[in-house]
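RETRY 2/3 - previous attempt timed out on the joint model. Re-submitting the same 422-residue input unchanged.
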Amino acid sequence: MTPSPVRLLLADDHPVVRAGLRAVLETEPDFEVVADVPTAERAVELAAGGGFDVVLMDLQFGGRMLGSQATAAITARPDAPRVLVLTTYDTDADILAAIEAGATGYLLKDAPPEELAAAVRTAAAGKSALAPTIALRLMDRMRTPATALSRRETEVLQLVADGLSNAAISKRLFLSQATVKSHLVHIYAKLGVDSRTSAVAAATAQGLIRR
Amino acid sequence: MTPSPVRLLLADDHPVVRAGLRAVLETEPDFEVVADVPTAERAVELAAGGGFDVVLMDLQFGGRMLGSQATAAITARPDAPRVLVLTTYDTDADILAAIEAGATGYLLKDAPPEELAAAVRTAAAGKSALAPTIALRLMDRMRTPATALSRRETEVLQLVADGLSNAAISKRLFLSQATVKSHLVHIYAKLGVDSRTSAVAAATAQGLIRR
DNA sequence: CCCGGCATCAATCCTTCGGTTGATGCCGCA
DNA sequence: TGCGGCATCAACCGAAGGATTGATGCCGGG
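RETRY 2/3 succeeded.
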């Protein structure tokens, strides 16, 4: 008998990557790449129509909707396909956002083809598929919660990285400057630094915030 | 008659991207993808052996040798193939490094297949092939030298981005703090900002420094 | 040859950032 | 139910960073 194949939807804004994924995945006899789309919006539309088992979703699209938002939109529906996030970078923020959005797995684009195929099968079976690097990262984060910034702290630090002053941040977030400073002090302690610029440097190095 | 095809070497550490480039380029009848390699070192070795017209070279490899170094090594030899740099990011520093290393062209990975093929043909003919975005960038830089940071200024700003204080920077570069501050003032003026953190933000946004 | 940009430094002033201490309310978990 | 983490705010103070002015030597291009 021929088992029913795994039906795939590819979403990535790079034509070359789409072609590469197609080439790599179609060598697997039990995979069928049904469609590939260049935007997150198209992915949501197509996925809503049904007919897919697994969606391979990039996180960074050239603007507009984020991959994590698209992931949330897709997984929110009943009888939704599994979403495998496939991205180049591995910032903590991205990983958590994807997982919270309901992604079944998280892979890096430099993964070898076998790993990729294995992850797709794992995802199709409904099981969680995390790249080894990612898994390690999450373990680390669990083990040392001291390093983990709170939601609010991350928010503040991101604005610092964007070049805002404490005054500007306090206005943006409807806080007093005292609160902003307080958050920063906690951030410094967690990151082991003693200035805003080095906090940004440390956080970007650890992938806690977006560049 | 059949014109002799353009013989290609692909260098990229992402298996998926290599497969994608192969898939995209092999649809062109006048292209022949002779080999693809996952490291810059292998690219230099193979290119040294001859037999290639154009090398498609990634800039970011997963460590060790940089694409720009490999580019320099390849173009340094007599009778070298043309090198087309193909990368995801477009920081000014990367672009200039690649061009100084002797790259014939510079493309972004999100380029559509037609653009890619056109660039390869242009490069094979020995002409310069720059992606529109990149060309614009260079024009901008030429037109407004005010925006261009001097070597020293870039050096200082990079250390600021790394989280160093003025005192630390002055020690690192064997300068007085006055000089560091002076550089910073010029940097602020050129970038149109008024603090170190926003200078870092602006510079990373414009790709003037590494993240 | 001289102008202009780059790199270097000094001295001043003052804004604001950073460190400290201390306090409150809320929520989740044990 | 009470502890601890998170988020919020206040007041204070010292210092680092930023603004300003001004000056020097070097080098390359017009």
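The two ends of chain A are 51 Å apart (CA to CA). Closing ticket.
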